[in-house]
UniProtKB/TrEMBL annotation:
It comes from the Eukaryota. It comes from Manihot esculenta (Cassava). This is Uncharacterized protein.
C-alpha cells in the first residue's frame, strides 16, 4: 500500500487487503472501532469493491444500533439550591464518570496553574460545543454572548474552529475574522502563512482570505471534490422520498441527517449510504450526532488538522505550548487522541452523558463551554494586568 502522508499527499492510493474483522466485514464499514477508547486510528484504509448490499447488511453490521445510540437526549437534572441532585441511576453513572473525566470548570485552577508558563492555543468544534444541538442544522446559530467570548479568547490565544461543516458555512455561522477555520473535519484549512509548511505540503497553496489577507489554504482531499459532489447529488435524489432526511454537501464530505426521520425509516437511510460506499470504495463512513457522514479514505482528520495548525502557527516544536481542544462528537476523538499521544495539552469532551473518550476533562454543554472560555479570558486578562502593574512599579 502506498500511503503518502504528512510531507506529501495523505491520500491512500492503493486499496488495502480485506480486513477480516470480528464481524467478518471490513473495519471501514463498522460504526465503531473494535477495541478500546480510540474511535479512529487516524489512518484509514480503502474498502474493497462489493456488489450493492442488501438491506440485511446494514442490520447485521450494526449500523442501526450505532444510529440509535448517537446523540443521546439531554438529561433532566433536579436543581436543589445550588447543587445538582442525582435524579436517577444515570446521574450516578455521570458523576462517577466525572471522576475519570473531571469537569474543566471544577479543575480550572489546576489547568491554569499548569498553563501559567505556557502558551495556550485553543481549538473549538462548532456544533454541540459553541452552539447547542438543534433539530435543523441550518438553525444552529451561535449566541451573541458565545460569539463575544470567542472573540475575546482569540484576542489572547491563537484560536481555531475545526468543524465537520464546510469551512464557508462555519465561517458564516461564527462570523469572526480573528480566528482560523478548518472545515470538512479538517480537510479544508485556512491558516496563517508559513512557508516551511507550504513548501512541505503539495496540497497547501497561498490564498487570500475574506479580508484580503494572505493565508495558507490546505485541502488534502482536493481531488475528491467532484466525487463528493456526485455522491451528494445521488444521495439527495435517493433520499428525497424519505420525510425528514437532509443531505449536506461540505465540499470534502457529505452528511446525511436522520434526526428528523421516523425511526422506522432509518434502515432506508442506512441502506442509501451503504450503497454509496459500495459504489465508491475511496469513500468511508463516520458517525456523528444523528448523522451519517461520507468522506474520503485519506489519512486526515481533526487530529491531523490540530497538528497542521500547530505547525503553521510555529507552535509544534515548542514544549511550552498547551493546546486545548473542546469538542462533543466522535470525530473530535481524533483530536483528543493526538493531544494524548503528544502528551501535550488537554482534550475537553462536551457531554451530559458518560462516554468513553480520549479527552482529559469534561464540560456538560455549550453553556459550560461559555463559562470555561470566559474564565480563561478573565484569568489571562488579570495575569496581564498584574504583570503590567508590577512592571510599572519596578520602573
Ligand atoms: O464538527 P461539528 O462542527 O460538530 O459538526 C458536526 C456536524 O454538525 C451538524 O450536525 C449536528 O448539529 C445539527 C445542529 O445542531 C443537528 O441538527 C445534527 O443532528 C447534528 O448531527 C452539521 O449539520 C453536520 O453536517 C456536521 O457534520
Amino acid at each position: 500500500m502506498d500511503m503518502k502522508s504528512n510531507k506529501s499527499s495523505p491520500v491512500l492510493t492503493d486499496p488495502a487487503p480485506i480486513n477480516k474483522s470480528r464481524l467478518g466485514i471490513h473495519s471501514n464499514l463498522l460504526p465503531y472501532p473494535q477495541s478500546g477508547a480510540s474511535f479512529s486510528s487516524g489512518k484509514h484504509i480503502n474498502i474493497p469493491r462489493k456488489k450493492p448490499g442488501k438491506l440485511d447488511d446494514v442490520r447485521s453490521n450494526g449500523w442501526l444500533d450505532a444510529m440509535k445510540s448517537s446523540s443521546p437526549p439531554r438529561k433532566k437534572l433536579i436543581k436543589d439550591f445550588n447543587f445538582e441532585v442525582a435524579a436517577d441511576e444515570t446521574d450516578i453513572a455521570y458523576f462517577s464518570w466525572m471522576l475519570k473525566y473531571p469537569s474543566a470548570l471544577n479543575s480550572f485552577e489546576q489547568i491554569t496553574n499548569f498553563a501559567k508558563t505556557k502558551k495556550i492555543a485553543i481549538f473549538l468544534d462548532y456544533d454541540g460545543t459553541l452552539s447547542p444541538i438543534v433539530v435543523d442544522p441550518d438553525q444552529a446559530t451561535m449566541s451573541d454572548e458565545m460569539r463575544s467570548v470567542v472573540r475575546n479568547v482569540a484576542k489572547y490565544f491563537p484560536t481555531a474552529i475545526i468543524s465537520g461543516r464546510s469551512r464557508d458555512k462555519v465561517y458564516e455561522l461564527v462570523g469572526l475574522t480573528e480566528l482560523y477555520y478548518a472545515g470538512s473535519h479538517g480537510m479544508d484549512i485556512m491558516g496563517p502563512i508559513n512557508r516551511a509548511v507550504s513548501n512541505n505540503q503539495p496540497n497547501c497553496i497561498k490564498s487570500i482570505d475574506q479580508q484580503g489577507k494572505e493565508v495558507n489554504l490546505f485541502q488534502p482531499a482536493r481531488e475528491f471534490i467532484p466525487m463528493i459532489d456526485e455522491v451528494f447529488r445521488t444521495l439527495v435524489e435517493n433520499t428525497k422520498e424519505i420525510k425528514g432526511a437532509k443531505v449536506e454537501n461540505h465540499k470534502f464530505c457529505a452528511s446525511v441527517h436522520y434526526r428528523n426521520v421516523d425511526e422506522k425509516n432509518w434502515h432506508t437511510i442506512a441502506q442509501c449510504v451503504h450503497d454509496i460506499l459500495t459504489q465508491y470504495p475511496r469513500l468511508r463512513l463516520t458517525h456523528g450526532r444523528k448523522v451519517l457522514e461520507i468522506r474520503p479514505v485519506i489519512d486526515w482528520n481533526k487530529g491531523r488538522a490540530v497538528e497542521f495548525l500547530l505547525e503553521s502557527l510555529g507552535l509544534s516544536k515548542r514544549d511550552d505550548v498547551l493546546p486545548i481542544y473542546i469538542g462533543d462528537d466522535r470525530t473530535d476523538e481524533d483530536a483528543f487522541k493526538v493531544l494524548r499521544e503528544r502528551n501535550q495539552g488537554y482534550g475537553i469532551l462536551v457531554s451530559c452523558v458518560p462516554k468513553e473518550t480520549n479527552a482529559f476533562y469534561s464540560l456538560r454543554d455549550p453553556i459550560e463551554v461559555l463559562q470555561f472560555l470566559s474564565s480563561l479570558v478573565r484569568w489571562k486578562k488579570l495575569g496581564e494586568e498584574r504583570r503590567s502593574m508590577n512592571n510599572r512599579r519596578s520602573i
